[in-house]
Design brief:
With about 260 residues, this protein is an alpha/beta fold. It has 10 helices and 11 strands. Helix 4 packs parallel to helix 6. The chain is globular and about 50 Å long.
């Protein structure tokens, strides 16, 4: 867990992500209601909660994979969407949305690597096509990332030739290849056994030490408590808690205490 001095430094940093009054429903089912939080530069925010609480949907809305019903989202000072007079979300134009997408990286729980590309091309395809970078500079950056994540010897391998932990590390490298301002993880270890989980958590921990801004949806309570600057606890589409690890894990809220009881046992 980071020091109080570091927490003070975080509070003084610029805001990378701001979410307010966010709501989402699928038909008659309300999935998110009045979601409000911010993420500062260099901050690590862990989002915890039971399955079905809206955690993954929240990430999908910010990453433009689902449509917001109402609310405001701002990324690095650029408005993704904002409420109109009737509290319905209105999106910015396509160019601004494209710019925002380039500031965000998302690592899925099931890797989502391109199976017909080797690992190096998984990393180089988007920077070449989307950013227009030269093949030489993109390849050099890919090799650097793979080396950093312990995959230097896997550049020419295909996803099916890698273990689950290696595939997830490759997925993290692919997200980093676009140099995002903020990196999202959607339960990055849920598909892995305990030994491979440790590999991936070690990578995320190293990124935190480099002050990478991250939002991590996770069921790894010990990891969240150790790594996060702030923890958001969600239940039934609402934010129940939003505080430091000490504040959340010592909360008097009955729902929070019930959810964390297994961790304390």
């Amino acid at each position: 867990m980071k020091s109080e001095n570091y927490q003070t430094e975080i509070a003084e940093q610029q805001t990378v992500l701001e979410v307010s009054e966010l709501r989402k429903a699928f038909g008659e089912l309300s999935v998110l209601e009045n979601i409000n939080f911010t993420v500062k530069h260099g901050e690590v925010v862990a989002i915890i909660g039971p399955s079905g609480s809206g955690k993954s949907t929240l990430l999908r809305l910010i990453n433009q994979l689902e449509q917001v019903d109402g609310g405001n989202i701002t990324v690095c000072g650029q408005i993704l969407c904002a409420n109109d007079a009737n509290s319905n979300a209105i999106y910015s134009n396509q160019e601004i949305l494209r710019q925002i997408r380039l500031k965000i990286g998302l690592v899925f729980q099931n890797f989502n690597l391109f199976p017909h590309f080797n690992i190096e091309r998984n990393l180089t395809e988007a920077p070449t096509v989307v950013l227009g970078q030269t093949k030489e500079e993109v390849a050099a950056h890919a090799r650097q990332l793979l080396s950093k994540l312990g995959l230097a010897d896997k550049a020419k391998a295909y996803p099916w030739q890698l273990s689950g932990g290696q595939q997830q590390r490759a997925a993290i490298a692919r997200a980093l290849a676009l140099n995002p301002e903020i990196l999202f993880f959607d339960e990055p270890t849920s598909a892995l056994d305990p030994e491979l989980t440790g590999e991936v958590l070690k990578v995320i921990r190293s990124l935190a030490e480099e002050n990478m801004t991250m939002v991590v949806v996770t069921h790894e309570m010990a990891f969240a408590r150790e790594l996060a600057d702030r923890i958001i606890f969600m239940d039934q589409g609402l934010i129940i808690e939003n505080g430091t690890p000490d504040e959340v894990f010592s909360s008097d809220n009955a729902r929070t205490r019930n959810f964390l009881r297994r961790y304390h046992e």
